[in-house]
């Protein structure tokens, strides 16, 4: 069976519409989206051994079908450089999430390499009652949360749509290189938007998608977080 169907089938059998970060990344990887290699650890020992395999520094995040916003729940620890730090982060994450969400089912933590800094961008997909799937593009952080500096296009996107979406946000100069920063690879972001557009077309069972953030570099882009919500089972 295709990986996508396995992931959807597992969520359905557990009565879930929220995919875990690990499932969402696996799903998107199949669609050609560049995601940071992310593995599940179900114990502290396993988190440490996976960290050693991936190489430090690493990031640990809570994996729970009941936690949508991982950092708000105290479920994300960045820049861990030693096995001891990974062990402590594991305990801290479990403790804060249990406090905040006593009923949540905790599967463990995801372990991934700490990605090198880039310009944070986001790509989202949601469904409009009239237009169907719509893609959103914006810069990460406060630019999206407070200033709502985002652009939208209806799926399926043309290459021209993708280019326009990127250039029409007010923060576009941030992508062109500012204060001596290298310009980001805008062509790669265009291709990424087109991949997400075909992903939305090919997977009508996906109700919402969030790649937040994606780190944009001068030589490509890497999604470090992914959230997928499925349509309710019919
Ligand atoms: P959530 O959105 O559920 O709170 P994220 O996975 O987006 O959790 O993590 C929170 C923040 O941590 C991100 O916005 C990003 O700045 C940073 N981050 C997450 N994963 C990585 C990573 N692999 N490398 C570097 N920074 C990361
Ligand atoms: Mg996020």
Which bin fits the share of residues in helices? 25-40%
Number of strands: 10
What is the terminal separation in angstroms? 21 Å
Q: Estimate the strand proportion.
A: 25-35%
Specify the biggest β-sheet: 6 strands, antiparallel
What shape does the CA trace take? globular
Distinct small-molecule ligands in the complex: adenosine-5'-diphosphate, magnesium ion
Instruction: Count up the helices.
Output: 8
- Low-pLDDT runs of 5+ residues are none
- CA gyration radius, whole angstroms: 18 Å
Judged by helices, strands and strand pairing, the structural class is alpha+beta
The average pLDDT value, as a whole number, equals 96
What is the H/E string? HHEHEEHEEEHEHHHEEE
If you had to describe this structure to a student in words, what would you say it looks like?
- The protein has 234 residues and is of the alpha+beta class.
- It has eight helices and ten strands.
- The chain has helices at 3-13, 21-30, 44-54, 83-100, 142-145, 159-167, 172-175, 186-202; strands at 38-41, 58-63, 76-80, 108-113, 119-128, 132-139, 150-154, 206-217, 220-223, 226-230.
- The longest helix has 18 residues, at 83-100.
- The protein is globular, with a radius of gyration of 18 Å.
- The chain binds adenosine-5'-diphosphate (ADP) and magnesium ion.
List the helices and strands and how they pair.
Blueprint (H helix, E strand, L loop, with lengths): L2 H11 L7 H10 L7 E4 L2 H11 L3 E6 L12 E5 L2 H18 L7 E6 L5 E10 L3 E8 L2 H4 L4 E5 L4 H9 L4 H4 L10 H17 L3 E12 L2 E4 L2 E5 L4
Antiparallel strand pairs: 1-4, 2-3, 2-4, 5-6, 5-8, 6-7, 8-9, 8-10
């Amino acid at each position: 069976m295709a990986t996508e169907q396995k992931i959807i089938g597992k969520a359905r059998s557990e009565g879930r519409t929220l995919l875990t970060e690990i499932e969402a990344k696996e799903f998107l990887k199949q669609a050609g989206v560049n995601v940071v290699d992310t593995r599940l650890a179900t114990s502290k020992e396993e988190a440490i051994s996976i960290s050693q395999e991936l190489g430090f520094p690493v990031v640990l995040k809570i994996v729970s079908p009941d936690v949508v916003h991982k950092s708000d729940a105290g479920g994300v620890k960045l820049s861990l450089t030693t096995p001891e730090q990974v062990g402590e982060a594991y305990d801290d994450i479990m403790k804060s999430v249990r406090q905040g969400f006593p009923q949540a089912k905790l599967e463990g933590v995801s372990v991934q390499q700490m990605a090198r800094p880039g310009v944070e961008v986001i790509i989202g997909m949601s469904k409009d009652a009239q237009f169907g799937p719509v893609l959103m593009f914006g810069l990460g952080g406060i630019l999206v949360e407070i200033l709502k500096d985002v652009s939208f296009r209806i799926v399926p996107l043309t290459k021209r749509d993708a280019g326009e979406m990127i250039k029409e946000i007010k923060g576009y100069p941030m992508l062109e290189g500012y204060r001596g920063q290298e310009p980001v690879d805008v062509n790669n972001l265009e291709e990424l938007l087109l991949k997400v557009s075909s992903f939305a077309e090919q997977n009508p069972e996906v109700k919402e998608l969030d790649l937040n953030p994606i780190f944009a570099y001068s030589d490509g882009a890497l999604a470090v977080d992914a959230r997928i919500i499925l349509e309710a089972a019919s």
